[in-house]
Amino acid sequence: MQNPYETVALLKERKEEREKIDQVLPDLAKINIQEQLLVPQPADESLYREMMHLTPARIGVWRTGTRPLTRTMLRFRADHALAQDSVLGMVPEEFASAHGLLPIQTQVENKEQYLTRPDLGRKLSLEARETLTKGGTAACQVQVVVADGLSSKAIGANIPDLLPALMQGLAHYGFIIGRPIFVKYGRVACMDEIGEILHPESLVILIGERPGLGTAESLSAYMAYKPHRSMLESERSVISNIHRGGIPPLEAGAHLASLMKQILASKASGVRY
Amino acid sequence: MRLNARLLGQTYAFHTVKEVLAKANEEKSGDMLAGIAAASAAERLAAKQVLAEIALEDLRKNPVVPLEDDEVSRIIDADIREEVYQKIKSWTVSELREYILGSNVGPVELRVLGTGLSSEMVAAVTKLMSNLDLMLASNKMENLAHANVTIGQKGCLASRLQPNHPTDSPEGILASVREGLSYGVGDAVIGLNPVEDTLPAAARSLSTLYDFVERWEIPTQICVLAHLTTQMKAICEGSPIHLLFQSLAGTEKGNQAFGIHKGLLDEAFDLGRKLGRAKGPNIMYFETGQGSELSAEAHHGADQLTLEARCYGLARHYQPFLVNTVVGFIGPEYLYDSRQVTRAGLEDHFMGKLTGLPMGVDVCYTNHMRVDQNDIENLATLLTAAGCAYFMGIPMGDDVMLNYQCTSFHDVASLREMFNLHPLPEFEAWLEKHEIMVNGKLTARAGDASLFLK
Question: Which of A152, A245, A257, B25 has the fewest CB atoms within 10 Å of its CB?
């Protein structure tokens, strides 16, 4: 018969082994590729490493034959997967109510139509127009609008921090703020029709950007003084690159509030501002 | 000219040549967005049937934008070689297709033929060709051009090294240049898309690239793809420029949206020949892409393929060194998925070549299209089989400034290896000197950017 202490030790060892197998592989997308030099015997390793920090481009990746190494290929695909999921994914239905937003929809009926008919993403549905008339705030000083745009992930990642910071900032300046709105399948210019229905003095729309491989969570803010449908693109002010690795959402909220204050003071936005 | 057809018992009546051209186009989301696409597969085929019987002279007489309204129409019409046109004007589009594909017709015949064609004729025949038709015909053609080196010859696959950087940092740009060179990429041009379109920024990037190329004695061309007016200012102030770049549209109004017109292009062409540093005679670099006219509301109700053909007609006027379509950049509202991008890539390449241009393709996609890296590897392979002159080369195909993906340094090397193609001869000799390539194969040193860190 085996010594019971040995059995316990053996069982422990087996458990540890099992746990090792159960362990999840390290997150591929978390590796800093600027730190990862894969060239086996470079002519000048230290200068190569220095050079890799001067660009976010995927260099120093090496090859097998003429093809990329497996880890480089998988990392690329992982970044693209995140970008695609973000474009094709939806902002959850309960998101609007959870953040106190009045939900409306453009004339777009589904994702495919959203991607192929940018014109419909600029127009509100009949129902949306009614919802705004009944539930929206008429003639406020600042109207805040959130729209999914081309990145559902940008909304989930930034709005929970950005929106309260922006609302607090606007309240701090003493502005009359309209009830914030969420637009499903929205393009930037859907702000123009909202402007014509509710007549806010100024409007800011927070909208998901087309994802790159670097980040899928980037958000843009377009601002306009008295938005209307015949306004020019150049009459909108814009701040882009809002995400954890760019302008962080909390800071963006405070910054946008001060920009809205300036727009209201100068009674103009975009190139006129 | 008959504009009616019967197909499967139904009669289809079309009203204008422009409508026939639009409805005969293969399915593209951009034509649907414009509201001019065929309503059904049968209508598309009826339009192709009508188009097949239209004579070439009727296409010349009916440009999609009238000569009196559009300088692009006038440039294209005036550049047609009458001697060639007179011989073929009574051909139908069907006969044109069969001539191009005929086994007795080679590169010389096709080069001559191209000089007698208007862009509407080039577009029309493209609409009657299958993907393999387009590849086979493209593969027959050979259009050469010379700046510092010669491009377009059979047996070679060249590449544009695109070292874009999110802040135009000179050392950041050079990091990608070094990496690309170590994979044998950069023989067509080392061309940067700048973030900042200003004279000081362009001048700085031009010097960065030029000094590097001079120091390492690289037989290639450099270019900074700022707006043409920025490059013209730079060249006048003494900045070193080999190639002058501009994006083109197929209508005068489309070009207005790009901030250019014939007078400006003429002036740039003159400046480039007088003050540019390339040996020439070909010193212009143009990019195009289906859909840009609609995007600028300058399409005049014409389909995106025909307008793209007109970009090549306009490009031909300036005897460019490089022309490439940026086939998947514009987004899903113009080219929806990999099927449409593949078709458009093969069409554009064929049309550019038939127009006489040394034609490359930026095989690419954005992240809101139903396309991925596998799809563009497929298209790049098809285009290599079709004899494409050059592709883009980007670190892992990820452009960190323009936020889109295209062909990588690895892809260029792989396509050369699979199809037994070489870099341009002068550049290959340079690669051999640096022991990056031997007998057309990459050596063990290839892929090490630090070779150029001395």
Answer: A245
Name the DSSP letter for residue A90.
-
Would the CB atoms of B398 and A117 count as touching at under 8 Å? no
Q: For residues A64 and A92, is the Cβ–Cβ distance under 8 A?
A: no
The alpha carbon of residue B322 is apart from the nearest alpha carbon of chain A, in Å, by: 25
The 8-class DSSP code of residue B125 comes to H
Contact B451 A115 (CB under 8 A): no
Residue-level pLDDT at B439:
95
- pLDDT at position A234 is 81
pLDDT score of A19? 67
Tokens 């746990």 found at: A19
Mean pLDDT score, B66-71: 98
What's the mean pLDDT in B265-275? 98
Rama region for B385: left / alpha / beta (φ>0; ψ in -120 to 50; rest): alpha
pLDDT tens per residue across span A94-122: 999 999 999 999 999 999 999 999 999 99
Half-sphere exposure of A207 (CA within 13 A, CB side): 25
**SS3 assignment, position B11:** strand
Whether B82 and chain A come into contact, CB under 8 Å, resolves to no
Contact assessment for residue A96 and residue A131, using Cβ atoms and an 8 Å cutoff? no
CA distance B400 to B410: 17
Cα B413 from Cα B435, distance rounded (Å): 15
**Mutate which of A66, A82, A240 to disrupt the B interface (most B C-beta within 10 Å)?**
A66
How far apart CA B158 and CA B439 sit, in angstroms, is 16
Token representation of residue B293: 């006219």
pLDDT, tens digit, 9 for 90 and up, residues B324-346: 999 999 999 999 999 999 999 99
Dump pLDDT digits (tens) for B280-303.
999 999 999 999 999 888 999 999
Question: Which of A44, A48, A58 faces B398 most closely, judged by CB atoms?
Answer: A58
Question: B145-452 adopts what CATH topology?
Answer: TIM Barrel (3.20.20)
Q: How many degrees, rounded to 5, is the angle at CA B117 between CA B113 and CA B118? A: 165
Cβ neighbours of B400 in A, within 8 Å: 55-57, 212-214
What is the arithmetic mean of pLDDT over B189-213? 96
Distances (CA, A) of B393 to A172, B14, B342, B371, B405: 51, 44, 19, 19, 10
DSSP tally for chain B: helices H, then strands E: 21, 17
Q: What is the pLDDT of residue A20?
A: 66
Tokens of A205: 């729309």
What domains can you pick out in chain A, each with its CATH number? 4-88 (1.10.30.40), 95-272 (3.40.50.11240)
Question: pLDDT tens for residues A222-253?
Answer: 999 999 998 888 889 988 889 988 899 999 99
Q: Is the pLDDT assigned to residue A23 strictly greater than 90?
A: no
Tell me if B97 sits within 8 A of B48, measured CB to CB: no
* Residues counted in chain A: 273
